[in-house]
Amino acid sequence: MDVVLRVSRLDKSFGGLKVVDNVSFDVTRGSRTALIGPNGAGKTTVFNLMTGVYPIDHGAIELDGRDITRIPARDRVAAGVSRSFQNIRLMPHLSTLENVMLGQHAQARSIRAQLFPLGFARINKWAEQAREALAKARLEEYPGQVVADLPYGIQKRIEVVRALMAKPKLLLLDEPAAGLNHQETGELQKLLREVSERGVTLLVVEHDMHFVRTLCERVVVLNFGRKIFEGTPAEVNADPAVREAYLGSNQSMGEAGHAA
Amino acid sequence: MSGELEGLLVILCLNTIYAYGVFLPAASGQLNLGAAGFITLGAYCSAFVNSELDGLGVSAWMSIPIAVLFTAAVSFLIAFPILRTRGVYMVLATFAFAEVVAGLIINLEFLGAAQGMPVDAHMPFYGLAIVTLLVALFCHYLMATRCGLAMRAIHDDESVATLFGANVRMIRVWAFATGGALMGLGGALYGHHFNYVEAQNFNILLSIYILLYVLLGGTQTAWGPVVGALFFTFVPELFRYLGRETGEKWLEDGRFVAFGLIIVIMMVIRPEGVVTRTLLERITGGRRRQPASPAAAE
Ligand SMILES: Nc1ncnc2c1ncn2[C@@H]1O[C@H](COP(=O)(O)OP(=O)(O)OP(=O)(O)O)[C@@H](O)[C@H]1O
Ligand SMILES: [Mg+2]
User: Fold this and answer.
1) Which of A46, A50, A89, A34 is nearest to A207 (CA)?
2) What is the pLDDT of residue A257?
3) Alpha-carbon span B179 to A65, nearest angstrom
4) Domain encompassing residue A247
5) What CA–CA distances, in Å, run from B162 to A210, B151, B168, B177, B280?
6) Inter-chain contact A114–B287, Cβ cutoff 8 Å?
7) Which of A168, B103, B220, B266 falls 20 to 30 Å from A109 in CA-CA distance?
8) What residues pair up with A165 in beta bridges, in sequence order?
9) Is A39 in the pocket of ligand 1 (CB under 6 A)?
10) A100 and A117 housed in the same domain
11) Of A112, A146, A166, the domain-final residue
């Protein structure tokens, strides 16, 4: 199988507390994989390790055959991994279009691209590309508006578009559906399917089990930093270890899968 | 044009250039309270290069660019240690830098020590006005580039900017050094306009004022520094003028109290500065539709 992401024996501790413990899994190219687990299981930390927010204690991360374990955070996006954030991290003082254009930064590192006046030249390939991406995500209504004023659901989708602008091989989405209403979740689901059809591999952290079942074909479950399950969404409910993990936490599998 | 008005416009030009020097790093989230230090460097460097009697006697066509390059180089070098500090510590570090510069100059005999130094070539008002315009245009251009976009992004969230590939450290160093160069230019122009430089004129009060009016004008767009400089240059004068015209002496005497009050009020009602992105959008009509209802975030 064609593996785009290989995580091997990943370890991370914060001040003696082991938050990610010997985690290994592979993600196949073009697939849609979910990374789930109770609160505090270490899902966001795994994303942070992949994108270089924190250094790794032990283990290796391979992206498309290249070992990215030690490369600095700012070079990882060029290596092919970009992400959205659990709590929206758009730049509040930038417009929608500018936020999306920030996603292009890694492809525009030459002096010439850096000194190109995006703001004056209303028509240029960067702005066109960003507008097109917004249109594809059905977000073309708000290009010039400062994002801080936009509704939550719209901001969540802008984050996905910004991450896409980096032309990633692997897109990491941290709870993209959290806080969205039914209709917004539907819009997001549709957007992610289209993205996936364009060949981008998705790795999604999500608590909404219905969302996971309808979108993803594989599931990796973490609990207390350890991988306790890997398989299909159909199998995950039946797995005793997973049931135990969710029962032991303040949130039951039934609650996590309420929409099922 | 009356001499008084021209005098004010000269101050406005200089204040605007200084303001852009503090604005560039501020736009990427760094507070520079050392403006006086950079201005001193530029002023003395061009004075020394230009002055026939005490210096090298080179023409102003050379002395001003040399002063700019010199200040840029110094700013670039000190940017590395200074940018290791954050927030209020960076404010203190830049302040300390300005104090070191003042202390050095006052003890250097060949720069006139405490007496200051004459400058030969004169820069008339219109020259100053043209340079100011060019500086403003340059900063507007810079903020419109992808580099400017990265600066503003870093201001908002540097770790996310990093994750999208921005070299935060380099961008900050360049913003700081370019700002330093602009203040050096301002200092050089000051010297060539008044034909005398004196370190005591570039004191901590000047640094505070400049930082204050940059923040007051707003650091989100390149219009902020102009508005801040206009405000700081003209409002105290306005009070003086009103006091004189109406014969109400308290207006003239109390103008700094009133001015201080206005600043406090502005900071309260417009904490992000007078000119913000949203304000510009409203003015230019870029804001077409209002969002339906900001859905409750988590
Ligand atoms: N920078 C940090 N310093 C110290 N502890 C941390 C840090 N980041 C995460 N942790 C701890 O690591 C554990 C895992 O956190 P993480 O955010 O990865 O969980 P998660 O699976 O994403 O949970 P949630 O579903 O609530 O988002 C938690 O106990 C958290 O407190
Ligand atoms: Mg999380």
Assistant:
1) A34
2) 43
3) 43
4) 1-80+168-260
5) 33, 11, 6, 20, 28
6) no
7) B220
8) none
9) yes
10) yes
11) A166
> What mean pLDDT do residues B57-79 have?
93
Distance between Cα A233 and ligand 1 center (Å): 24
**Residues A159 and A176 grouped into a single domain:** no
pLDDT of residue A255: 46
Of A73, A120, A181, the CB nearest to B163: A73
The contacts of residue B69 (CB under 8 Å, 6+ apart) are: B181
Q: What is the pLDDT of residue B291?
A: 41
The Cα of B79 is separated from the nearest Cα of chain A by a number of Å equal to 21
Statement to judge: residues A218 and A253 lie in one domain: yes
How many structural domains compose chain A? 2
Which of B145, B157, B278 lies at the smallest CB-CB distance from A146? B278
Whether residues A228 and A194 share a domain: the answer is yes
Q: SS3 of A170, please?
A: strand
Query: In whole angstroms, how far apart are CA B245 and each of A69, A239, B5, B236?
Result: 72, 87, 16, 14
- CATH at residue A222: 3.40.50.300
Per-residue pLDDT reduced to its tens digit, B186-203: 999 999 999 999 989 999
The answer to whether residues A159 and A219 belong to one domain is no
Judged by DSSP in three states, B246 sits in helix
Provide the pLDDT confidence category of residue B109 given band limits of 50, 70 and 90: confident
What pTM did the predictor assign? 0.90
Q: Is A14 in the pocket of ligand 1 (CB under 6 A)?
A: yes
The predicted complex's ipTM stands at 0.90
pLDDT at B277: 84
Does residue A255 or residue B120 have the better pLDDT? B120
Nearest ligand 1 atom to the CA of A48 is 18
* Sequential DSSP letters for A188-242: HHHHHHHHHHTT-EEEEE-S-HHHHHHH-SEEEEEETTEEEEEE-HHHHTT-HHH
Asked whether residue A200 falls in the same domain as residue A129, the answer is: no
What residues pair up with A28 in beta bridges, in sequence order? A3
CB of A104 closer than 8 Å to CB of A163:
no
Q: Give the pLDDT of residue B298.
A: 33
Q: What pLDDT was estimated at residue B54?
A: 78
Residue B155: its pLDDT value, please? 95
φ, ψ of residue A68 in degrees (nearest 5): -105, 10
The pLDDT of residue A248 is: 67
Asked if residue A221 has its Cβ within 6 Å of ligand 1, the reply is no
pLDDT of B8-53, one tens digit each? 999 999 999 999 999 999 999 999 999 999 999 999 999 999 988 7
